[in-house]
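ok so for the tutorial part 2 we go from a plain amino acid sequence to predicted structure tokens. step 1 is just haveing the sequence, like this:
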Amino acid sequence: VPPIPTRILTDAGTGTTGGVTTALVSALRALCDKSGPEAVIWMGDAKGNEEAEEILDNASRDMSTHRSSQAYCVVQPTTAEEIAACVGLCASWTPPVVITPRGAGTGLEGGAIPYSGGIVICTDKIRHLSVHPKDLYAIVGAGVRKNELNKKAAEYGLVFGPDPSSNPSIGGMASTGGSGMTTMKWGTSKENVLGLKVATPQGQLVTTRQPVRKSSTGYEITQLYCGSEGTLGIICELTVKLRRIQPVRCGALVRFPDTASAAAAVVEVLKQDLVSLLKCEMLNAQGVSVTNKMFGTDLPLVPTLFWEFRADALPVVVKDYDSAKRIAMAHGAKEEGMQFADDGQVMDSLWEARRGCYLASLRYRKQQNEKVLITDVCVPLTRLTECIDATERDFMDAGFPCIICAHIADGNFHALVPYQPHEEKSVRKLESQMIDRAIFLGGTVSGEHGVGLGKREKIVKEHGDLHIDIQRRIKHALDPLNIMNPGKVLEWV
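step 2 — the prediction. this is what the tokens look like for a chain of 493 residues:
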């Protein structure tokens, strides 16, 4: 292991500029001159400029409950070349300047919060987008949002598969390994990335792979950067798979007496390999309750599965639904408690309610200063019931609501827990118990949110020292100055 190099690691709580000087700002602006004067926002001249102050403020936090840390300089290039030039400048500066990469800021583990001072490089303005329908892929700037890509792809009858509840940037999805509600059929963002253009910690641009469906030409560095959360480089451009939109879209709601019955039914449904089943989500009883309050729905307060089917013909969907329905009824679901819609649009309001779990949880108790802990673990399907039941019991016995939103077909669930600031220590302790339980049951500390700062210690428990040492050696080799998002995912030593 190489020694820790001399470098700047200014905590945002010390000093006035986080290690950023006027000379550095001038040099960054010269490199980003084609992107205009707003490309580099600096605390030193932002006072009184509401737009600049808002940009700095937004870059000081993400969507998590992790503490914010003042961003002192935000760089917003419009090209990969400008990003690479800025990274190279920071690497060559004396002392080197640390960089916090940032996408849309929708992360949930503190990965884009600039705790180490230095500068924030935001990819949000890299928005080029081209669809190649005959080859079924798109080339996108890292700042392109999921919904933006899908709107353009839909013009060609295509769709980008991964579907998080939020509207993240495509670069951010790849950086954290995000996925969402279609993983059971179309995979996570990692399986849908064909290649990347990455700015290395030395300020060079590397293209990881040709835009082909398969390649066997050495180490697969595309996947090395996917999930690295900006610690090995900055993803600037992505080539992603697109899929044909099938015209028939149907939906269903299936209610169960308890979570165990719902999980057992899902395990059996997955064994049938139903070709048209695209989404299989679950809300627990409290999840249904917050949905009813927020969105004006009137669903019974029991664990509920949400299904979506896609096919070229309605009979295919009906056949698959009937198969799934029989399995559900064998596990305690009542036929009168099932709803099937042969027009998927009828279900859209309910899917939007499923996507709105966070906002609904935030408003559930109608208390000021409310926060919501958003957890994320993934376990083998056969252990899911045990993990969810114990999690619900722990939080509710401690007096907290426990809203479960589950990508149940993946064994992945989120417990959303409203709490007051003075209760944070208690909910964090309960979250730690939940994560330890997931590991004990053969699971992982994060199915799709990433590690960031929030789960850095827990991945050591999941993987063991040797595994983490291999990851750390990769970090040391690719980023020897430790300027790329230091302190995230892994400790330097």
